Amino acid sequence: MAKIARVEMARVTFAEITGLLEDVILVAAEGQAASDLAAARQLCNRLGAHLRVCTTRLHRLQRQLG
């Protein structure tokens, strides 16, 4: 039973990471249309923040899976 619960947790986490990556894609697409350096800088910061969240979730999943 514990294995089934761990697999389900992994599946849920993969789904969450998928959603986060979709956000990353949207921010990156916005960056392609940046009109000036200030906008590009702001979008770059947002993109970095989203990527850090994805990386954190991925590392947590790796630890949980062993």
Briefly note the structural class of the backbone.
mainly alpha
**Average predicted local confidence, pLDDT:** 94
Q: Give Rg in angstroms.
A: 16 Å
The secondary-structure element order is: HH
| Structural shape | elongated
Got a strand count?
0
- Could you name the ranges where pLDDT drops below 50 across 5 or more consecutive residues? none
Q: Roughly what percent helix?
A: over 70%
Strand content: under 5%
Discrete helix count: 2
Measured between the Cα atoms of the first and last residue, the distance is 17 Å
How many domains in all? 1
Largest sheet: none
Structure description:
The chain has 66 residues and is an all-alpha fold. It has one domain (2-65). Helices cover 91% and strands 0% of the residues. The protein has helices at 2-32, 37-65. Helix 1 (2-32) packs antiparallel against helix 2 (37-65). The longest helix is centred in the first third of the chain and has 31 residues, at 2-32. The model has no long low-confidence stretch (mean pLDDT 94).
Annotate the secondary structure layout.
Blueprint: H1 2-32, H2 37-65
